[in-house]
Design goal:
The protein contains 17 helices and 17 strands. Strand 2 and strand 3 form a beta hairpin. Helix 1 packs across helix 8, helix 9 packs antiparallel against helix 10 and helix 11 runs antiparallel to helix 12. Helix content is 41%, strand content 14%. The strands form six sheets. A five-stranded mixed β-sheet has the order 6-5-4-1-7, with helices on both faces. A three-stranded antiparallel β-sheet has the order 9-10-12. A three-stranded antiparallel β-sheet has the order 13-16-17. It has 459 residues and is an alpha+beta fold. The protein folds into two domains: 161 residues, 3-Layer(aba) Sandwich (Creatine Amidinohydrolase, Chain A, domain 1); 289 residues, Alpha-Beta Complex (Creatine Amidinohydrolase). The radius of gyration is 24 Å and the shape is globular. The structure holds glycine and manganese (II) ion. The site of glycine has 4 residues, from loops. The site of manganese (II) ion (MN) has 5 residues, from loops.
């Protein structure tokens, strides 16, 4: 936990930004996996963590801006809870740690909100992402779950995003810690992966590192020989000579900040010639993107720079043809790169995705609907303090190739007969994390080999 001062200042600024009404924060609860007492790993809500720091289940809070009052709501532990799960600080002790002086039992939250609504005061809430919060919000405000996302407070969302997007120095220390743990996970996988192992062996090994550092994973591990499936969480395949293993894995550190790295390694000691040619294309895209990172540049343009590098490489290989810029504008590259170049990262691996990419990554501008570009999570002009990922990849998805070929889509840009030779290639991606600084960008965390020579040296 940071010092109380950090949380007090964050809340003060939030209060000033939203200006009036009541801000409602729903902390997360324990949630049964298959019965009530066998719970999923507890993860506090990131916005609750950011403003109230307290990493315990069953808390809610409000900032009553009009009356300049902050309250944490929670119930003291029962003796049964203490017997089975151990003790915790009292609600008051938890609250004082983050500079909140007023506490009330959970049952008072409804009374407080009812009273505010009766007086016609505005109750600001954020879009809920857990069903139990939809129910809670319905009970508290009477807003139907189906309408909660659209009736969430834009002023509140924008004010939260406008703080959390700019990482402070003490946050950068935490993020770098998470990236370092993530790097350890990747370095270990690079050294251990051998033909005959299962993808699950790699997933288990990297997970154990995250757990041993007293944190957790920042998202479920992707350790796959089928890297063409962008978020492939199946781990049942056996690694064999000639495969590539794509590892996309990150740690969440003790303070719940995320790291997010991807690497692609040959299961044999070296990449094949065919793998080298595609790997180099993704690496060129990666390096051109990294070289362009600085304040004032729109991330959409950096994405397009990386995309252009992929098209140039594909043209050289004979898989694409025609004018590269026209191909990019038309979206023809999305046969090979269907997603975005990167995303914001912080307390969430895709930071604040629950609050809406349009606010986090687009500053309110609408997103493109073009296949490929619609999956770009970040497009806005970069500013110092932003933390983001760079993760271009090249993916050969047989079903997509078949679909586009049958439709004759972008035939002026795509040589389908050449593409066919790669339909069983799979996919690859490399990913690093960056802080935007006053005059450029700084890669965060320990270096993980990314050039083919450096990767092969690890094998
Ligand atoms: N690391 C998973 C993702 O960025 O989507
Ligand atoms: Mn990522």
């Amino acid at each position: 936990m940071f010092s109380a001062k950090t949380y007090i200042e964050r809340r003060r600024r939030l209060q000033a930004d939203v200006a009036s009404g009541i801000l409602l924060f729903l902390g997360n609860d324990d949630c049964g996996m298959n019965y009530a007492d066998n719970t999923y790993h507890f993860r506090q809500d990131s916005t609750f963590l950011y403003f109230f720091g307290s990493d315990y289940a069953g808390l809610s809070a409000i900032i009553d801006i009009d009356n300049d009052r902050e309250i944490i709501f929670g119930d003291e532990l029962t003796i049964d809870h203490i017997v089975w799960m151990g003790t915790q600080p009292t609600i008051r002790e938890k609250s004082l740690q983050v500079g909140v002086n007023l506490t009330m039992p959970l049952s008072s939250l409804k009374t407080y909100i009812d009273e505010a609504i009766r007086k016609g005061r505005k109750v600001h809430f954020l879009p809920p992402y857990r069903p139990e919060h939809q129910v809670k919000l319905f009970e508290l405000t009477g807003v139907n779950p189906a309408e909660q996302a659209s009736l969430a407070s834009l002023d509140f969302i924008k004010a939260v995003v406008n703080q959390r997007n700019y990482k402070s120095d003490e946050e950068i220390v935490q993020i770098e810690d998470a990236v370092n743990i993530s790097a350890e996970m990747h370095l270990h996988a690079m050294q251990m992966a051998r033909p005959g192992m299962k993808e699950a062996d790699i997933a288990a090994a990297v997970t154990s590192i995250a757990l041993a550092r007293e944190g957790n994973l920042s998202f479920p591990v992707i350790a796959t020989i089928n890297g063409q499936t962008l978020h492939n969480h199946y781990h049942g395949n056996t690694l064999k000579d000639g495969d590539m293993l794509l590892l996309d894995a990150g740690a969440e550190n003790r303070m719940h900040y995320a790291g997010d790295l991807s690497s692609t390694i040959p299961v044999s000691k070296c990449f094949s010639d065919r793998q080298r040619s595609i790997y180099q294309i993704a690496l060129n895209a990666h390096q051109s993107a990294v070289a362009a990172l600085r304040p004032g540049v729109a991330f959409r343009d950096i994405h397009l720079l990386a995309v252009k590098a992929i098209v140039d490489g594909m043209k050289e290989l004979g898989l694409m043809k025609g004018d590269a810029t026209e191909a990019v504008n038309a979206g023809a590259h999305a046969l090979f790169f269907q997603c975005g170049l990167g995303h914001m990262m912080g307390l969430d691996v895709h930071d604040m995705e629950n609050l809406g990419e349009v606010w986090v990554g687009y500053n309110g501008e609408p997103k493109s609907t073009q296949f490929g570009l619609k999956s770009l999570r970040l497009a806005r002009k970069l500013e110092p303090g932003f933390v983001l990922t760079i993760e271009p990849g090249v993916y050969f998805i047989p079903e997509l190739i078949d679909m586009w070929k049958a439709e004759k889509r972008f035939e002026q840009f795509i040589n389908y007969s050449e593409v066919e030779k790669y339909r069983d290639f799979g996919g690859l991606r490399n990913e690093e994390d960056f802080l935007i600084t006053a005059d450029g960008a700084r890669r965060l965390g320990k270096h993980v080999p990314i050039t083919m020579e450096d990767v092969e040296a690890m094998r």
